[in-house]
Amino acid sequence: MQYHHFSVEERETIQLMWWERRSIRSIAKTLKRSPSSVSRELKRSFPLERQTYTPRVAHERALTKRRNRGRKDRLKNQIIRDYVINHLKGGWSPEQISGRIRIDLEEKISHEAIYQYIYFQIHRDGHGTLKPGSQDLRSFLKRRHKRRGQKGMRTVQRVFRPKGPSIEDRPLIVDRRLRIGDWESDTIESKDHAPGLNSLVERKTGLVFLTKLKDRTSESTTRTIDQRLSNMPRHTVTFDNGPENQNWQEVERITRTNCFFTHAYHSWERGTNENTNGLVRWYFPKSTDFRTISDETIKQAEHALNSRPRKRLNWLTPLETFSNESLKSAGSVALTD
Question: pTM, whole model, 2 decimals?
Answer without folding.
Answer: 0.58
